[in-house]
Every structure is written in structure tokens, then in C-alpha cells.
């Protein structure tokens, strides 16, 4: 893999595709936990559903999408980074480790389908 495949030039970085990946990552990192808090779901249920369900599925789906479309791998970094910020507000400190798990899942899913 060339270094250019991981990093991209400025014009393609500020594209609509980049905005979509960032928007979905922000929604899953901030909006979904807020919705679960407002629904008054217990902390255990919230952590189980969000950390082990929704976020894992999104990491796998984004990895598969980036792999199928042969898009730059930097798109897979958005969600773990925004999740690290969201953990500070919505989850206990042990949840920081999930960012690495989500990144690993996304890169593995991408690698499975990459051409």
C-alpha cells in the first residue's frame, strides 16, 4: 500500500464523502448516547447496546464500505477519534479502550474486502 492511499490530498479530504463519514461518526459518538440518556435507559443497558451493538456494527459497516469502494483508510479513523471525545461525556473511563477495538474491527473488515 502506498502512503498516498492512507493520506489524501487537501481537495479530496474536504469532500462530501469525508463530511458523510464524519457526520455518521459524530452522530454515533454524541447523538445516540444522548438519545439513550433521554430515554432513561439504565447505564448497563446503554453500555451494552451502544458499546457492544450499535458501535461495533457501525465499525464493521464503515470498514466494509471503505474496502468495497477502495476509499482512503483515513475515513476509518473518524469514528474512533470522535468516540474518544464522546466517552469523556457519556461513559465510564474503561470505555476508552473500545476506540481501539472499533478501529481494529474497521480495519479488519476493510482488509477482508479490499481489492
From TrEMBL:
Task: Reply yes or no: does the keyword Transmembrane helix apply.
Answer: yes
Q: So where does this one cross the membrane?
A: 12-37, 49-66, 73-90, 96-113
**Does the UniProt entry include the keyword Membrane?**
yes
Q: What are the protein's UniProt keywords?
A: Membrane, Transmembrane, Transmembrane helix
Its name, as the record gives it, is Uncharacterized protein
Species this protein is from: Liquorilactobacillus ghanensis DSM 18630
Amino acid at each position: 500500500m502506498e502512503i498516498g492511499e492512507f493520506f489524501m490530498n487537501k481537495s479530496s479530504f474536504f469532500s462530501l464523502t469525508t463530511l458523510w463519514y464524519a457526520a455518521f461518526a459524530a452522530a454515533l459518538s454524541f447523538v445516540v448516547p444522548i438519545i439513550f440518556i433521554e430515554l432513561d435507559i439504565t447505564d448497563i443497558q446503554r453500555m451494552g447496546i451502544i458499546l457492544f451493538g450499535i458501535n461495533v456494527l457501525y465499525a464493521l459497516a464503515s470498514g466494509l464500505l471503505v474496502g468495497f469502494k477502495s476509499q482512503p483508510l483515513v475515513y476509518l479513523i473518524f469514528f474512533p477519534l470522535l468516540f474518544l471525545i464522546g466517552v469523556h461525556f457519556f461513559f465510564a473511563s474503561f470505555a476508552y479502550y473500545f476506540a481501539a477495538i472499533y478501529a481494529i474491527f474497521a480495519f479488519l473488515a476493510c482488509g477482508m474486502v479490499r481489492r
